Protein 1
Amino acid sequence: MMFLDPGWIILILLVVLLVMGLPIAFVLGVTAAAMIVLDPAVVPQIIGLIPFGGANNYLLVAALLFMIAGEVMNQGRIAEKLIAFASSLVGHVRGGLAHVNILTSLFFSEISGTATSDAAAIGSVMIPQMKKRGYPAAFAAAVTSTSATMAIIVPPSLNLILYAYVANASIAELFAAGIVPGFLVCGLLMATAYVISVKRGYPTEGAFSLGRVWDTGKDAAIPLTLPILILVGILGGIFTATEAGAIAAFWSIILAVFLYRTIRLGNLIDTFRVAGKRSAMLMFIVATSTLLGWYLTNQRIPQDIAQAILGISDNYWVVLAAINIFFLLAGTIIHGTPAILMLVPIFLPLADQLGIDRVHFGLILTINLGIGQQTPPVASVVLITCAIAKISIARIIPSLMWFLLAMLVALILVNIFPALVLWLPSVIL
């Protein structure tokens, strides 16, 4: 019977455990362990070996280190200096604060690596300011939420680090590949904000002034050295992603504690505790997803799924569209980290069979999940901005849809034109 097939049993178990509200790490681990115990062809002792091997990877240390850097920058109110600089550049455009919000998110994305950190840091400052200037709370929250998604596209995106780990892809190529799509998303979001602002008559933030750009640029220059240092170091082959994470964490502490003095040395322990908890959750998910991934591969389920999809159509664009739709839907119910760890081992053989470059495939997956995490029921980033704006998630939907449409345009362009992703790595690496 079809429903006795291991693939169907795994799917049913995953859905049931998710509906029960079990944490995602336990969902993955319990499902994998149950299947292994019930399979007489598999030695049960593998349950204790595979997860350890999955989490014991040098590259994953980079995730912890970038989390520390992002949290220190967040707690150290470094975002305020980036906001002032962004305001001097684009504040004079109609709907000035919306553009400042988006551009600041791009700047901070190159430091934080996570959309949630970006949304919390930028949103806590920008959303109240936008509300004071007459912008609707829903519009302010929508701008903040969607622009925070750039953090998982541009380096040092933690999603790209995880994808590199799972897909055995070059982290340097992925970081380089994320730059052009990141700027593409930024431009489309700003264009959307401009059209809406002109239509609704949102204000500007005064005339453009080179003097103000110079003054605010001096304050923002030092924090902006961090993403430049990361990119030059990794892309230039000077140090690895993990070493870049260590440098980022060290430099962020120097800025926040000793240069700007926005964090006391004693308070760093709390910052490390937050980053430690997040990385522990990440490692737990990595460990359990590795076990499930091993069992899926052992049962040749990814290859069976690939053949089933190709059985529907062997047309490249039809299959690619089906993959994108699946990723979009998956992103609405599964967070980015477990989605990457679960879906990449399943769909990578299909991508290889279609001839999709693994770096290109990584950006397709990442942008899809970025859009998905803006959509209920998960919508983790949206929940953060709604909490800051003090509105319900239902109120943000009408404003959010326009910005999600802009991100969908970016996704379609990245799918149709692989050069948007692959050109920069081919030039600089």
Protein 2
Amino acid sequence: MSGICAGRVVIVTGAGNGLGRAYALGLAAEGARVVVNDLGVGTHGEAGVTEGAADRVVAEIRALGGTAVANYADVSDWEAARHIVAAALDAFGELHAVVNNAGFVRDRMFVSCTPEEWDAVLRVHLRGHFCTSRHAVDYWRSRLKAGHAVDARIINTSSGAGLQGSLGQSAYSTAKGGIATLTLVQAAELARYGVTANGLVPNARTRMTQTAFAAEMNRMEGNFDLYAPDNTAPLVAWLCSAASAGITGQLFELKGGRICVAQGWVDGPAQDKGARWTAAEIGPVIEQLVAARTGPKPVYGAG
């Protein structure tokens, strides 16, 4: 198939449903050969809930004339993630992009969150992003050392919860905030190897958001399905393509037809005394600085 990703090989993790499925289908429609990775778990990580989802997406892609293979490895398992990259190389002989999308939530107020829930969420999101990307980078570095040109992409998935926090989602927000920062570091460190890293902040109807925000997630603007997962797929295809080579270290928020580039943490108002502050004088200065800064987005659910 022809398209902006013709000739590219892309891994999409968590691609059996929702956004991942939309990305896989969109990439295939743009000519990419796709590794559809999905472990088959539920929205809280329950095993076997969506068993066979990766195969179903592969069948959809092939029925539309695209090329894809299924993979069922756990992205957060170091050796299993190695096999995800190997699946791309075995099937297609090369790899150009990794779209880290796999994840689940364990909604819980901070005072009720258990260590097991905390670890499970950070493992699938943060460790999952690390393991799959790290094995891909090992491959790309080896290609570069062997004298081959590398034009590769890492696409990470953060969240509004990661950029501004969300009530009842302390673990998820922490993981997604870490992914945003990871993206910045990857972009800075991997440019020398021909690898760009960018992040997504999608607003879409998925199994996770449908449970928590059902009324909003089904909202239409006229005939436009504002939260359809397909809305984000063209951005992912472009970021995976050769056309995006000049863009790295960015986080893109997409809602409906609106694309926004996040600005992240920037220096705000400051006051320099030129000497050590005393504890007694700091209070009024802090009040002035906080009053002068641009107000942040509120934490989701905080009003």
Protein 3
Amino acid sequence: MTAQEILAPTRMMPLIIDGLRATGKLHCLWEKDDPEVFLRENAVKIGAIAAGAHIAVNGPYMSQFPNLKIVANFGVGYDSVDANWAGKHGIIVTNTPDVLTEEVADTALGLLLMTIRELPQSERWLRAGFWESKGPYPLTRNTLRGKTMGILALGRIGKAIAKRCESFGVSIVYHGRSAQKDVPYRYYSSLVEMAKDVDILMSVAPGGDGTKHIINHEVLQALGPMGVLINIGRGSVVDEAALANALKNNVIFAAGLDVFEHEPHVPADLMACENAVLLPHVGSASIHTRNLMGQLVVDNILAFLSGKNPLTPVSETPFSRW
């Protein structure tokens, strides 16, 4: 028997649910009277899972489904899915790359400008009536003029950010697992050494054990008192306690964050920092882009159901495995 049923463990955007429901094979777990009973009785039928970041699709979870063949993840980051385990067990994992690149890069640049020029603070000054009562907002001490940005993880999004920042006259360098032959930017094999040489550290790094808290006290100390940290990748990359301490004690100048380690929770110590610009993970959050991402989740699963190759398999689980 070929398992052709689809499971949506948690709520997802209507475009995904409607697109998969049209197959007549979708099971939305939150609609079941007793989800645990449903899984016990129907796990053998499930061949595909549509998942977001709100559930850990790890080895024990996937092992419930003996005929599982594909996990279609909503988002370019897929650290909530154990892709290595999936690959070893013949399960494809897909994500939603490319379609969100430009939107996230736009957000990164907006967050950088907000942070380095203190734009949220100056707006608060106006709204509080201080422009009239106290005069103009104080001149900002930082600028993009003559700056160098170090990008952590120069992938699709990192390159799109680099292109935008170059048009502002910002010099680009990068750090990653290895140097890339097809880019014109200087490569640093050490994140700390790069942090010493740059004015802005832009993190686009994915989550996971390999990147957890790699932006730590040592890196922030190297970035220096006029340094700016921007994180548009994954919150777990930054040691948030170390960052809050660095902001409070002027170890770095400022930080702009769109992502946090335990979303939607934001540490109170970060919330208290006036030199931090905090956004609620809105990097790709436009209707246009989220619809494209949702459609890619649907298209990957529909490709599986029709016996075709998935459109966007991740590197740990090449489509040739099934």
